[in-house]
C-alpha cells in the first residue's frame, strides 16, 4: 500500500470518528494519530485531508447534493458520505493529483470499507462532479 493510500484510509477513519462520534477535530487527531508512529509524509497528508475535509464539509456536502440524484447527503451511509467528501476535497484542493487517480483511490477505499453498491454510487457522484468542474491546464 502506497503512502498516499495509507493517508487516505487514515483520514477516512478520522472523518468517520469525527462525524459519528461527534468529536472535535483536535480530539480526533490526538486520539487517532497521537500515538501512531507514521512516516512524516503519511502523517502530514492524513492530517491535511482530514482537516481540510472537516473545514470544507458544508461546501462539499452542497456540491455532493447537487450531483447525487435522488439522494440527500444526510441519508447516505456515513462511510460513503465521508469517502465522497474526502475525495472531493482532494480533487478541489490538491490539484497535483489528477482527479481520475483520486476517484480510483476513493473506489478502492469504498471496496475495502463499504460495499459494491457503494462503489458504483461513489463513482457516479464523483464522475458527475468531475465533469462539472472547469477544466484546467492547457487546451487540447
Describe the structure.
The protein has helices spanning about 5-20, 25-35, 40-55, 55-65, 80-95, 100-115, 115-130. Helix content is about 75%, strand content about 0%. Helix 1 (about 5-20) crosses helix 3 and helix 1 crosses helix 5. The protein is built from seven helices and no strands. The termini are far apart. With about 140 residues, it is mostly helical. It has a single domain (about 5-130), classed as N-utilizing Substance Protein B Homolog, Chain A (Orthogonal Bundle), CATH 1.10.940.10.
| Class derived from helix and strand content | mainly alpha
How much helical structure, as a percent, in the residues? over 70%
Strand tally, please? 0
CATH class: Mainly Alpha
Strand content of the residues, in percent? under 5%
Radius of gyration: 15 Å
The biggest beta sheet, please? none
